[in-house]
Structures are given as C-alpha cells and as structure tokens.
Amino acid sequence: MNLTKEDIQFIDTYLKNSDIMFTDVRTEMVDHVATAVLDEMDSKNLTFYDAFKAYMVVHKKELLQCNKQFKKTTDKIVLKSLFKKFIAPLNICVMVVSFFLLIQFFPLGDKKILKFIPFGFLIIAILIYYIVVLKKRKQRFSGIERAGCILILIFQVYNIIQNPFFNDKIIITNDYFFSIVFALLLGLSAAFIAVVFQLNKKYTNHYTIV
Amino acid sequence: MGNSKLYKGSLNTIILKLLEEKGKMYGYEITQKVKELTKGELKITEGALYPALHKLEAEGLLDVEVAKVDNRLRKYYKLTEAGEKETVNRLAELEEFIRSMQNLVNPKWSIE
C-alpha cells in the first residue's frame, strides 16, 4: 500500500501549520510520519485519516521537540562551516595581503572614504544573501536562514563598534586597527558568501524533486 | 519503558553500530530496527532520534543522501570515514563500560 500525493501533501501542510517551517526539517518528518502511518494502516487496517490521527495524538509533542533541537544543531553546522572557510589558506592569504597593502600604500590620512569599505563588505554579503539565495526560493531552509541571522549579528556588532556614518574616533585615527578590521571583515564576508553558496548548492541537490 | 534512561547515554553508539552494519538507514527504519532487536524493550522516540542524528551529522560522523521514495523524499544516513573510526572507538568504550558494570553489580558473572 502507498500513500497518494494528496496524503503526503496533507501531512506536509499539517506539519507546516504546526510551526515546522523549514523544508529540510519537514521533509524528514513527512517521511517519518508517512512511513509510520502506512505501518498503522497495514497492521490495524485503518484509513489514512484514522491512522494519521492515531499517530499524531501520541507523537506530535515529540515531533515538535525535534524541531526545536534542530535549530541548535543547524547553528553549530553553519558556524563550523563559516570558521572552516574563514581559515581556508586562500582566505587567510587574501586577508594578510590586503592588510599589508593597506598599511603600505593606503594610509588613512584624510581619505575618510576608506572607512566605509569594511562596512561595504558586509552590505555586499547581505545583498548577495538576499538576491542570490532568498529571492530565488519559495522554500525556507534552516541552514540558509540561520546563516542570515549570524550575518546580521556580525553586522550589528560592527555597527556598535564602528559605524562609519556616526563614529569618527575609533578606527579612523589608527591605521593598524583599521587595516586589521578591514582584513577581517573582508575575510569574514568572503567566508560567509562561500558558506551561503555551499548551503544553497547542498539544499538544491538534496531537496529538488526531479 | 522504565529502563529507557539506561539506554539514553548509548543512543549515539547504537545508531553508529546500526549504520555500520546496514550501510545506510533512514530515521524510521532505525527506530523499527532497534525495537525489533530489543524485542520492544527499547523504543526510540522521534524527539531523541533526530536530534542525535543531526548532532552526529554536525560532528562529521554521518553523511546524508536524499532519495525519492513513492511520493516523498527520504533522508538516508551513512557513516563517513571519521564515523567508521569513531564507531570502533565508541563500541570499545561501551564494551568496557558493560564489563565494568558487570563487575560492579555481579562480580562472579562474566560475558567471556
């Protein structure tokens, strides 16, 4: 016995309405529930709706608990990937070279425009995040959304430390400090973009039904 | 089950051992296999199984493969190379633990 497309859609909609929003989490839950419901239908000779109701009465709480736990694990995966990309040899080379080039050839002096550049890296990363990933998707994926949260957090921390529109004093007076921040944000933005593309590729490969 | 708490600390090792034997498995299959092997003594709940699987995946011990089955997608888990090595270590640890427990609760009895 198999479940129809409508039955699967019914389970998917039910889980979505139960606040399991991310497609990657829900896909696994849908398969779990569908297989369990099929077992119930076979063993107890029930209709789909009766088997589904019987299963959900007992297991809904567990399924929702699983959804909460998943967010923590996803954060861990995203941060680990971000760190890996950040310390990748090429990224470190780019950061080191940009630091020395800046120190050597572009001392801040009166060129106040330079202080906007690190801010620009983060803006570019956020734009790429929204344009390339979110605008193309109708579905929500946990890793991509959690990565977005991490980027916004970094952006806010940078704004507190040094917002080029409001704060003239902290970075602009110190070439070395500015160059370090410049190099780190360049590396972080590049790592973030690489992670988002990597996650996007992974989800496209895993969750596209051909 | 009253004694499920005793199994709780070994859940990751149980999952790794099953995957080592079967190659690749999906979530529901794991719950059913455990139920079958323990003759219904241990029932792994969704709330325990999936966080454990996701944690093992995050640690790089499991790899994921998604396949279309009937009208839905199914996520299969399999051991990575690191996972295979870790399974050997964790099984050795578990055996050592069982031996120690046996010595503690029943010094005269032995599994050997």
From TrEMBL, chain B:
Keywords: DNA-binding. One of its GO terms (molecular function) is DNA binding. Pfam families: PadR (PF03551). It comes from the Bacteria. Residues 15-86 form the Transcription regulator PadR N-terminal domain. The keyword GTP-binding does not apply. PANTHER family: PADR-FAMILY TRANSCRIPTIONAL REGULATOR, TRANSCRIPTIONAL REGULATOR RV3488. This is DNA-binding transcriptional regulator, PadR family.
